[in-house]
Amino acid sequence: MAAVLARLHGPVRLMASLMYGSGLGLLECAELRVKDFNFERGELTVRDGKGGKDRVTMVPAALRPSLVEHLRQVKAQHDVDVAAGPGAVALPGALALKYPNAPREWTWQWVFPATRFYRAPATGEWRRPHLHETVVQRAVTDAVRAAGIPRPAACGVRWTRLARGGPDRP
After folding, report:
1. CA atoms of 138 and 155, how far apart (whole Å)
2. What is the pLDDT of residues 61-117, one digit of tens each?
3. Band of pLDDT at residue 157, cut at 50, 70 and 90
4. pLDDT tens sequence across 80-94
5. How deeply is 46 buried, as exposed, middle or buried, from its count of CB atoms within 10 A (0-12, 13-18, 19+)?
6. How many Å apart are CA 132 and CA 129, to the nearest integer?
7. DSSP E strands: which ranges in the chain?
8. Comparison of pLDDT for 153 and 129, the residue scoring more
9. What residues contact 158, with CB distance under 8 A and at least 6 apart?
10. What phi and psi, each to the nearest 5 degrees, are found at residue 147?
11. In the beta sheet, which residues pair with residue 119?
12. Number of Cβ within a 10 Å radius of residue 140
């Protein structure tokens, strides 16, 4: 795991470390919002996880400083986005109707935002989505190859089994 993580950089490394340290799935990690973290308690709330249920997991203490710095950078980017016009995110269900200002509020922003905007088909509004899962998948696959690991490995079940040294198939 150390060899793979050492070959990752930026938000992808932080995402992979968080998935490994907190037991998150790839999409669960990509869809984290700022409000899901409680650094005082060292907790992370995973919303609408497996089975459509919410759960609470831990934030590894070793990742807290990196996460705080990452969120500081994301907040600065969000402030620029809001000042320029786009800066909203998609909200689940009818929350955008119930709370019209929520899509631009800091607490609802993605922890791992994408580098580009898209235009929402329903509203025509410019939004910044979360980092796409395939970005992380490709980076992890490339890191596994670069580490010289001769077994298939990717984010998810095999990622965990690679770390344990177990079989690479369920």
Report:
1. 10
2. 999 999 999 999 999 999 999 999 888 999 988 888 899 999 999 999 999 999 999
3. very low
4. 999 998 889 999 888
5. buried
6. 8
7. 37-38, 43-46, 55-58, 118-119, 126-127
8. 129
9. 152, 168, 169
10. -75, -10
11. 126
12. 26
Two tokens, residue 97: 């109707």
Is residue 7 classed exposed, middle or buried when 0-12, 13-18 and 19+ CB atoms within 10 A define those classes?
A: middle
Residue 103, token pair as written in the block? 């899509």
Residue 87 near residue 48, CB atoms below 8 Å: no
User: In angstroms, how far is the first alpha carbon of the chain from the final one?
Assistant: 19
Q: Give Cα 101 distance to the centre of its chain.
A: 23
Per-residue burial over 99-136, b if 16 or more Cβ lie within 10 Å, else e, is eeeebebeebbbbbbbeebeeeeeeebebbbbbebebb
The Cα 93–Cα 140 span in angstroms is: 31
pTM > 0.90: yes or no: no
